[in-house]
Amino acid sequence: MLTLLARLEETALSIWLRESGLAFFSSLALHSLAMAIVVGINVALALRLLGVTPQFSLAAFRPYYRLHWAGVLLIFVSGLTLLLAYPAKALSNPVFYLKLAALSLALLIFRQVQQLALRNESLILNASRRGVALLALWVVVLFAGRFLAYTHSVLLASRFY
Length: 161
Ligand code: HEM
Hints:
The protein has about 160 residues and is an all-alpha fold. It has one domain. About 80% of the residues lie in helices and about 0% in strands. The radius of gyration is 18 Å and the shape is elongated. Protoporphyrin IX containing FE binds near residues 82, 83 and 149.
């Protein structure tokens, strides 16, 4: 596994993403922009599900669904470039898998609510529980994302060879 990661780190693209400040920080900036969009829309939806904003109908969310999934695409692209810059750093860190697991669950709940809301809002059962789950999962994703930089045990696999 370490050999494969070491080979990945020695590709021209990985070296460029790591050594070009512009490339690495643009990826990090895009990652932050995309997470503001995705997490922002999820928090607004969760607050609606929790009944904090009852006057805000879920039908009014319609235009935000497309923006949300565009944000998800951008966060995966920027996340993959950050990952490619330091593959061993993230892939050898259990916190990274916690982040991906919480992220997948949160996107699943969002997708379910979106599909039900587009059919008929009254079909959404356990709305408050879904709202609490969404908020809790995004807190986990954000903290895990931030702690990635402090919890890794390997920076570059190629250092072992
Ligand atoms: C909506 C989903 C996501 C959120 C909210 C999120 C959040 C974060 C946060 C808060 C950081 C720290 C940024 C900083 O240091 O300024 C981060 C870094 C990172 N994220 Fe994400 N992320 C998400 C999705 C992803 C995905 C899908 C991947 C990979 C496929 C990924 C890979 C990374 C990597 C590799 C880092 C850099 C860690 C480091 O400093 O070395 N993220 N993310």
